[in-house]
Structures are given as C-alpha cells and as structure tokens.
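Field reference: sequence -> structure
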Amino acid sequence: MADPLISLFDAVLSDLDGVVYAGPHAIPGAVESLLRLETFGVGLGYVTNNASRTPAQVAAHLRELGAPAEDHQVVSSSQAAGELLASLLPAGAHVLITGSAALAHEIELVGLKPVHSAAESPVAVVQGFNPEIGWKDLAEASYVVAGGAMWFATNTDMSIPQARGMAPGNGTLVAAVAAATGKTPVVAGKPEAPLFHAAAKRLTADRPLVVGDRLDTDILGGNRAGFATAAVLTGVDTTHTILAARTDERPTYLLADLEGLYAPYPEVISDDGTFRCGAASAVAGDGTVTVTGAEDDLDAWRAACAAWWARFPDMAVAQAPQVEWRTH
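Structure field:
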C-alpha cells in the first residue's frame, strides 16, 4: 500500500478556524488527526489570523478540546503585527488599538504603548478582530487614520466560521475604516509569507505542509512562503471555489478534512488532455470541464482541478468553468 500523504512532510502548519474548530467546538476527527502526527514524527504549528486572543489563550482552548498545543506552537497575526510595528516605530511610540486586549498585549511586548483614543496622539493604528468592537471604535480609528497615522491590520479575512455559520471577520471591520478614509492598511498576517516562515522556523521544519480552509489567506500565504499547501473542505472554501481559484491560490492538495493526511494521495495522470484520478477523469474546454465520475467523489474534483488548471495555468482572477457531469 502507498504511504500516507503526511509521510512526505516534517511539519504541519495548521490554520484554526474552519480546520480545527468552528466556533468553540472541534470539527469531527480534527483532534484525533492532530494527535496522530506525533506517531509519524511530524511537528505541529498553528498559524492563525484571529487576533482576538493571545497565543497562550489559543493554546489553552486547543488543550481543552483535547488537541496537542504548547503556547510556542501558536503563531498569531497579532505577533506578526507587533514585530512589524516594532521594526518601523521608535520604542514607546503610541499605537491606537482597534481590537482586543490580546492585541494590545502583543504591542506592549515589543516596547510600544497601546492607547485607545485619538487624544493620546497615536502615530499608528493597528486593527485586529474583536467581537466587542463597535461603531465608536471604528470611528476613532477612522479619525486617526484620516489624520495621517500609519495603519496596520492583523488580517483582512472577510468572514470567520462560527458554530451557527459564517460571521463577519476582521476584513469587514477594516473595510469600514477604509470606506470612511479612502486609505488602505498594511497587512501583517496571512496571506503574507513571514507568518508561515516564522512558524516553520520555530519547528525547525524544512518540509512543512500548510493546511487551511481559505484560499485567500491560508493557501495564498503558504504558496507565497514556498511551502506545499492543502485545502480542506471543513470551512470557507468549497470544491467549486477551489476549482475556480486563480493561479496564486491553487492548493497542492485537496482534502475533505484533516483525516485525509493519513491516506495515500491519489496520483493525477495526464493522458493527451484527459486527466485521471482514481476512477474519475476530466477534460477541460475553453469554459467547461467535463467530468466522468460522481459529484460526491473527491477524486473527480481533483481530476477537474488538474484539467482546468492545466488548461489555464496563468489565471490572475478566479474563473469558474461550467462543470458537466457524466457517469461511467
């Protein structure tokens, strides 16, 4: 039997929301899959854009769910923002926090002074997710940004998976300030590569696999970092959006969930324009992909992606083909 996919890598850099949990609850099978990594000698790091909690709080939540997690295994966009601001501002500079106490803590750790009002003469604004943020907070940020202060965002995820469904993410709050000011922030977290490089460095990993549910943050960021990427279907993106992905956001692997790490990954074979994966095959035309197989078979989607992406290797914007299904 072929080796499982995980045997190709020395570490997994996993996203959290939509991969390990949705809201407070673990995604079925996720914790067990993370625990199994140790039996393969594979390191584990968590790379998260959610800036509402400290890495220690995130690690504690993961341990409550039964997942393996030491504080140092969590690398957050808040930490990335702190390091970025510290490289650009003098020690003790005032930074307006539009976000959580966890974000303020990271800013304090790098020698800057968190403030919460324009009256305290901030020279920069850093904006991170916090479910408690209200209109007054966004207004204060807008006044300071419009006044010429540097503006940073931990991330610009437009949505965040919750137990009840998809909810507005930090990107929607950033967009409100952008709409009010006409300005654009510097983004510290995913999809920028440094967050992934920092996580790999902590694990001394040479062959990490980035696993995420979002093309525009996890997969794009992992690709930019030069790492292999795997998209799972337990969060935001779907087989349809992955098929339509622009070149920079195309994952190396397509998995149903984290349990897919422990199965052999099927080879996609190209034969004169026909792409075969398992029992399925696909052929791409100018605006269509004809798939022979079942729509609920992941191999059929792997074949479809291979065919469409080979037909259009350089796609700057997402473009969804018409998918035509045929039975064997």
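Note: The two ends are 26 Å apart (CA to CA).
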